[in-house]
Amino acid sequence: MEPDHGTQKKGTLCGKLSKYAVIFLILAVFGLIFLLRNVNTAENWNCHTVSALDQHQSRIQSKLPTFHNHTFCAHLGQKPSPEDELEERYLLDSIAWPGPPPRSSPVALNQTSDPVHSLFTLPIKEGREWHVGDQLEALVQMHDFQGRPKIYGGDFLLARLHSPELGAGVAGKVLDHRNGSYSALFPLLWVGSAQVEVTLVHSSEAVAVLRRLREEQPQRVFYKSLFRSGSLSETTVCNMCLPPDQKLQCNYTDLSTGEPWYCYKPKVLSCDTRINHATGGYVKNLLTSKEAPLFQSDVNIKVHIHASGPDRINVLPPRKDRAEVESSVKPEAIQHAPSGYYYKDSWRSLNGVTMRQFNESSAITQCLKDKVIYMYGDSTVRQWFEHLLAFVPELKQFNLHSPKKIGPFMAVDSTHNILLKYRCHGPPIRFSAVIANEFRYISNELDGLSGGPNTVAVLSIWAHFSTYPVEVYIRRLRHIRRAVLRLLDRAPGTIIVIRSANLRALDPEVSLYDSDWYSLQLDEVLRAMFKGLNVLLVDAWQMTLAHHSPHDLHPPPAIIKNMIDMLLSHVCQKSHQ
Fold this sequence. Notes:
Helices cover about 30% and strands about 25% of the residues. The protein has about 575 residues and is an alpha+beta fold. Among the domains are: about 110 residues, Immunoglobulin-like; about 230 residues, SGNH hydrolase (Rossmann fold, 3-Layer(aba) Sandwich). The strands form 4 sheets. Strands 1, 2, 3, 4, 5, 6, 7, 8, 14 and 15 form a 10-stranded mixed beta sheet that branches. Helix 7 crosses helix 13 and helix 9 packs parallel to helix 11. It is globular.
């Protein structure tokens, strides 16, 4: 009988498999032992060991990638409806900014706008009289560093008309004629001296760089979160938009609004061990050698442009054939009407609010009696909380054991039944060590309010969105606007106050992250999105532009006091209607 070769081969194969099985089993046992020992080692890592990983990650962040397609960051979150997309296109078109003509090579500094060689002129003619109610136009002509007239627009200019003697000031409206010349328009609102001031904030060439940074480097301010479980701690980088192809990510997108937020996943810990949120840092070396000279203090950042000839006029009382009205002039009678102006260092509103001076704490407590005031936003509205707390001794801050300058904060006047609260808005926010479970999105907070005539909601959200594409800000405001409308629908008497963006001090570094040009673009979007709603806009932009104080992210007490006076004037007026 011949041997069965198939059976022999099968037996040989089974023998080999048995040998491999034993080998695999031995390797698996050793692997399991190795894994258990390493897990035990990981559990005993101290913070210094993990900190070394964090330092390595920090070095990586200095080389964060460029987002050449900014739509990745701009259109995260819930997909917008066709109506939302249409509104977004309209808003983006409304803030479109003219730029320098395309060039084959970077422009040299001597070809860019120079405030020293530039000038403005006033239409002063012999025998010409200026009266309250008239409009003054200053013509600005920009020149480059070689003294040659510019032939295209796009420069970022600020203008104001002021009188130091009278404590008066009003913001001007700058019109870009896109040929190197600009008009600065001013309503004449007071009797007496009025001096024109024109300032170059950034050249058109610098604005083009700022636009590029906003679209290509939205992560140039980055954030971090601490993860902790037992004795093990890890810190990872977070942001609204992280490159999806780099590392595993933890998704902290808000379930209600769809607002996105991500952190890189810790190496050992899980995503649900996140403890806090903090500013991580600022990406450096953003500019090329050709771009850096466009951002120089005292050279081309916030430098005054001088007048060719007189820079001031004397304003006479209204003409006899012009009807004199309260505040001398009605807004509708002025082209490019401002929201208000200063006179004797007090803000006079032109948007329908009858201004009162709240110089005594008793007047404030009487106005806020039986009110609950919620303040949501950034540190610029926290200033309002701090002002009221300092000025009204009856308001006692309740100790919530919150981190200083972060909150949340609460103050109570039990005698007059006043409750004052402040809470920062959700990410992105450049605060230090905000507890993760203390984060609230403004729209969600508004949805939690009962509302009513004794409820005041104050909102301020702008400063922390300057590094992102404008679409990100539009999306956030859209959620807030919908929540405002829901609140006003269920409680029509609720008082809603929105604080706009304000000007700030700039230097070469701050300009790349928080330029006034970024703030201006956001401010115009804010105004457009809340136009026509039953809300009060406190125009911090014009209130800081028209005032004589230096620009500051946190305006000085004199300006804050005027903002609070406007808030209270509106609240008291509404309460008695």
